[in-house]
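Why does this matter for the project? Reviewers at the last site visit asked to see concrete outputs rather than summary tables. In response, this paragraph embeds two records directly. Each consists of the residue sequence and, immediately after it, the corresponding structure tokens. Nothing has been edited or filtered.
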Amino acid sequence: MKKIALEKGWEEYQQRWHKPAGSGTRHPVAVIGAGPAGLAAGYFLARAGHPVTLFEREANAGGVVRNIIPQFRIPAELVEHDIDFVIRHGVNLVYGCDPHLSVEKLQQEGFHYVLVGTGTDKNSGVPLGGDNPNVRKSLQFLREYNRGDNLMLGEACGYYWRGKYRNGLRPRGPARPRSGEGHDRLSPFTAGDACLA
């Protein structure tokens, strides 16, 4: 329904939207992180008349939605659409920033306010012993999968979530489960602590 509402209302919104009076005349704001939180903050701050710059360590914006959640869940073109929407409202994006960028440094550069929206880039603990190279933390695994890295997966792949092992990863091509065998699909919303290959 949201997609239909967007398609029907997007042109009308573009025609009716205008920059607020005094846009860009308020105190400049730096936002560390250009994931969902940083993009949303940048959009609303720009609408309120602040000049906004988002600082992102990655080579692209979107955070977890762009770099972790597989594209079969949220297509890249939808993420790009949202990023373009924010940029059209006057938000500046700076990519490839120092991951240890400090609030003090940004204030010295003239930003009156600094918002930290660095997101969820940490895995929770993995209750599996040993140092098996085939056990990967979920966010690392999903990032590598989303980039298209060659993960060298075996016949079965699974993930551990809340004390349960589940199997399956949606293949890049058509799904071909073995006859008589049902496979759970990996969901970024239920991705757990470890992925096993």
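We now turn to the second protein, recorded in exactly the same manner.
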Amino acid sequence: MVTLCQQLFELVNLTYNPNTSLANYTYKFTDLYWSFQNCPLGNTFQMDIGEGSAAAILLMSIGQDSSLIGLVKTLYYATPFNLEQITNRLLIEDSHRTKKITNSTLYLRQSNPLYQKPHLNNSSTSLNHPWPSKVISHRGHPYSFQSGG
């Protein structure tokens, strides 16, 4: 009975950290929910959380993130309102956020001159070239190179 109550307490008090992955949090929440639901003592003591209640608990736990408030309000009106529907939509939202971050990073790399590919300019003079055209050897050094002329 103590284990069952600890699982319930952990599930109800789980909160989302805005600096972490929404998908990882959703997976953690559903894992806790299903471990609570599948506990054999749950049937004995008639402790059950329906999927609608679990979905409401999940939405309440992520509602503290200001960037997710609009999504949370929308998901309260999802039909059907169950854990599967809510977790699917949260995972879709996470993939959109990840894609948006990836695309903005790609855009920054393309627009930032520090990330641009170097252009080969065949007409550059040897003064502008970062490497000398011939390697000069040091006599007596065991790894010296011989210059070509």
